[in-house]
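Hi R.,

Here's the chain you asked about this morning:
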Amino acid sequence: MSSEPKALRSSINGWNAQYLEAQHEAYLKDPNAVPPDVRAFFQGYELAQTKPGAGDGGGGGAISPTTCNSAPEDLALAYRGRGHLAAKLDPFDRPRERPAALTLEQFGLTEADLDNPVPGSIIGRPGMVPLREVVSRLEMLYTGTVGVEVLHVEDY
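And here is the predicted structure, written out as tokens:
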């Protein structure tokens, strides 16, 4: 009996771009044409690319205190996780491409929604506040000249 270590199956991180592209083309033609782990990978990728509210009648429309709509909370989570990607950290002040994940449209919101009330607790304020105030606060905290990331802090 050998005690030598055995090679483990390669992970997604070990795959190369050409392989993934070929597998993705095969998956698009027939999802069952690729191995189950590859199929699960692409299914997860598609799920992550789906906009909130797509296909379920959710999405846009006015936000009101009586409406159960998680879009403002989801927007805040996006800023907490990706706001640093839009932070103004370049000493030469070159413009950065804004991540699509930080747009109102990504959450089924529009400019018309900015004056609608949302829970102030999203930004640590009591009562209801306009969505505009929430966005302004998130912009200041996460996309200003100091980048802050809180989602991966393990001990607060």
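One quick note: Confidence is low (pLDDT under 50) at residues 51-68.

Cheers,
M.
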